[in-house]
Amino acid sequence: MELTREEESALKGEQGEIMQMAYRILVATGEATDAEKLVPIEWTHLSGVNYNTIGDAGEEFLSSISKDARVKVKTTLNPMGFDIDNVSNYGLDENFISKQLSIRNSYEIMGVIPSFSCIPYEIFEIPKDGTQVAFAESNAAIHANSYDNLKTNKESAFSALASALTGKSPYSSLRKEDSPNVTIRMKVNDPNELTYGMLGFFAGKVGDISVNISGLGEMDNRQCKAMCGGMGTSGTCAKFIFGEGESDAEKIDFDEKAMQNVYDELNTSEKGDIITLGSPQLGLEEISELAGKLKGRTFEKRCMIFTPRTVKEQANKIGYTNELERAGCEILSDCCTCLTPLINKENVDAVTTNSIKGAFYLKNSNGVGVNLKSLSQIIEDETR
C-alpha cells in the first residue's frame, strides 16, 4: 500500500501506541482487500458495543485505550445490550450490566456519539453524494452504498474503530465503481417486507461485492431496510445496484421456490412465545405506521419493539408511544433484537418476527426458535 509520510510516521509509532495500532489495523485490512492507499472519511459508525459480542477482552481493551484515544471524525454507535431506563425489569446479571456500562463509558470518553442505533441513516443527516464513510453495522453499510450514495467498505468492529481514530479507511473495491458479478431477477408477486428481507438474504449468498437487482417496483422504507438487513447477515456482499439493463453478469432468478428455500431455512417454529419488531430498529415512519395499524387492537402476547432513543423521544411527543403501549407493546431504546440478553432460550422457546436479520441472529446466536411472518400477518394473527 502507498502511504503518506504522516501515515508512515504513525505506523512506525512516532505518533504514539494507539495511532500505531490503528494504522496497523488499517494497513492489514487494506492489504487483505487489495487497497492501494488510504482515503479520508467523514463519518464512522461502530459495532463492537454489545458486551454479548465483545466480552471481557473487548471491554478491557476499550477501557485501556479510552484514557488516551480520541476519535477524529463524527463517530456513532451501534446498539448495546439493554435499555438503561428499564434494565431492572429483565433480571439481567449484574456483571453484564456493569461491563456494558463500562463499554458505554469508554466510547463516550473517546468522543463517540452515544446513538446506540443500527439505523444511523435515519437519525442523522446524510452527507453529500459520494462522501467516504466507514460503517461497521452491516445493514447500515449496505444502505449507505445502495440508497444513500455514500461509499463504505463493509467494515469490521476493529477497522471501523481504527478509522474513527485516524479519519482514514482503505480504498478497497466497494469504494470504487466495480461492476456487479450477478444480476438477480425478482420474480415474486405481491412482495412485502418479509419478501424483501428474504431477497436480501438470497442476494448476500450469491453475490460477491455487489449485485444488480432487476424486476423491482418502487419500495417503501421498511422494505428497503428489510433487504439491507437480510443481505447483511448472509455473506460479504455489501451493495445493491438497481436496473433493468442487460449486462454480462450471471443471471439468477429469485422466484417463489428460491424464496421458500430461504423461508424454510430460517422459519423453525409454528408459533412464537413473544413478538419482536425492530431489526433493524424501527424509525419514526414505521412507528407511525404501526401505531395506525394497532388502533383499537391489542396484542395477545408480549410484544417488544426496538427503536433508537431519539425516535422514541419524537414518538413520545407525537403520541405514538401512548398508542403502542395501550396495545401492549414494550418500547425499548438503545438495544436491538439481535444478540440481546433480553431474549434467551432459558425463558423463551420461540419468537415471532417479521425480520430476516432478526430471525438469523435469534436462531443462530440467541438459540431460540423463529416464527417468520409479515407485519400485516402478525397483527392479524396476534392481536384482538
UniProtKB/TrEMBL annotation:
Coiled coil: none annotated. InterPro entries: PMDh-L-like_dom. Its EC number is 4.2.1.182. Signal peptide: none annotated. One of its GO terms (molecular function) is lyase activity. Keywords: Iron, Lyase. It catalyses: (R)-5-phosphomevalonate = (2E)-3-methyl-5-phosphooxypent-2-enoate + H2O. Residues 1-380 form the Phosphomevalonate dehydratase large subunit-like domain. The keyword Lyase applies. Heterodimer composed of a large subunit (PMDh-L) and a small subunit (PMDh-S). Component of a hydro-lyase that catalyzes the dehydration of mevalonate 5-phosphate (MVA5P) to form trans-anhydromevalonate 5-phosphate (tAHMP). Involved in the archaeal mevalonate (MVA) pathway, which provides fundamental precursors for isoprenoid biosynthesis, such as isopentenyl diphosphate (IPP) and dimethylallyl diphosphate (DMAPP). Belongs to the AcnX type II large subunit family. This is Phosphomevalonate dehydratase large subunit.
